Amino acid sequence: MGFTMHVKYKFLLLCCLISFSFASYTEKDTLSLEMVQDRAVGTFLWSTWGDVLGREIEFTYVLDDMFKQYPHGITGIASLKNEWNFLPEKFGRNKEAPYTDDTRMAMLVGYGLTTKKVITIEDINIVLPKIVDLFIQDGNDNQYGWTAFFRAAGAACKAGVHRAALLERKEGFWNQQSIFPTAGGSGSVMRAYPCGIKFWCNPELACKYAVAQSRITHGAPMADAACAALAEGVSLLIQGYSVTDTTECMIEIAKNYDTSTAQKIVRAIKWAQEGKKLLPQKKISSHELITFLQDRKGNFRNHHNKVFGIHGDPKRSWDPDHQEFLGWAADDAIAAAVYCFSLFPNDPELCVLLGVHTVGDSDSIACMAGALVGAHNGVKHFSQSIHNELKQIEDYEKLKQLAQQLVQE
To answer: What's the whole-number mean pLDDT along residues 152-166?
Structure first.
């Protein structure tokens, strides 16, 4: 971004700060390293939990088909079928629940951001080639890397990394347009949240690095907008800003790259406001949420179908007039994540499970919703049963360590 956008961003941030509640401002001033680390760890763990749970039902396009396969829905890792005979040996031996390419590539972005203790925008030509190298090296691991068959890596990510490996890395290359300027899938968005963790106190820098890492594989404006919005959201939530103020800033930063993406986030928030009216005022359990989603005549189920585009009619599942936030495109994916987060901002379990039970890119929607709700809530104060659940995800300790390392540096 040039000088004009820099000034515009600073003005936007100033306007947002004026509107922030006194409680949020006070919390931001009194943040301890322990609180920041907890939110960083929460970002990684809740995101990965969503990725793990959504992995088995990605590509399910009708909600009733999902419930035929899982009559009681998916409420945790115990609900998954995890056919160990079709997975590498370590998963069955350790009973670890595998994640997809979403989490694997997010981890690689995170490791790339630990290249230097202090990173500025001038370091972009050091950090981005490092991330590319990590993508290439890990992609060569056909058993556990991000290209392994059970990770279900996207075509744009594969093609982008392959092309990046062949190109000469000239000075300033990573600030230019992507190798694939029309690629607007969600593949680069799910891996953007580590930028928000690394630059948790500098959302402007978080956005710049999120967009830069996206352009390795995806160059469409909607991908830029979605990555910037997710990174900024995570950054502000870790600082302790309110849900309303955070989502407003996500909308504004998205506008700088793609107005259509910003408009979809606005619609997602309105959908969430309508959805809240259809649920009990009291806290509901995960099983109650599943019951509402299974009730074909219920108001919330009908609302859910409208939000995620199928309208209950499988024959029209790919009709453009009957799609809203299926999650395959970057703009839909970030909007879907904001919808889930806005509906259950203080309940990571319900937020993620709502994202899982979507007809489309379920793992990615749940992954991004988990990043936002994890940055807002952290993980430390949750029950032991929740901690036991999260400990079952693949690379649990590595995820915790990486999150803590990113904010320590």
So the answer is: 90
- Work out how many domains the chain is built from and give that number: 1
pLDDT of residue 2: 37
pLDDT band (50, 70, 90) for residue 311: very low
The C-alpha atoms of residue 127 and residue 261 are separated, in whole angstroms, by: 27
Query: Which CATH number fits the domain that encloses residue 115?
Result: 1.10.4080.10
Residue 180 has pLDDT above 90, yes or no: no
- Cβ-in-10-Å burial (0-12, 13-18, 19+) of 386 comes to middle
Is 123 buried (19+), middle (13-18) or exposed (0-12) by CB count in 10 A? middle
For residue 219, is it within any domain? yes
Strands (E), 135-266: none
Q: If you average pLDDT over every residue of the chain, what do you get?
A: 87
Residue 178 lies in a domain: yes
Query: Is 1 domain-assigned?
Result: no
Phi, psi of 97 (to 5 degrees): -90, 120
CA–CA dist 373, 371 (Å, integer): 6
The CA distances from residue 174 to 124, 127, 170, 202, in Å, are: 7, 10, 8, 20
Query: pLDDT per residue over 223-273, tens digit each?
Result: 999 999 999 999 999 999 999 999 999 999 999 999 999 999 999 999 999
For the chain, the first-to-last Cα distance in angstroms comes to 25
Using CA atoms, how far apart are residues 247 and 287, in angstroms rounded to an integer?
A: 28
Residue 8: inside a domain: no
CA angle 137, 143, 147 (to 5 degrees): 55
Domain residues for the domain of 335 are 24-408
Cβ atoms of 164 and 132 closer than 8 Å: yes
Closest to 188 in 3D by CA, of 140, 155, 233: 155
pLDDT at 363: 93
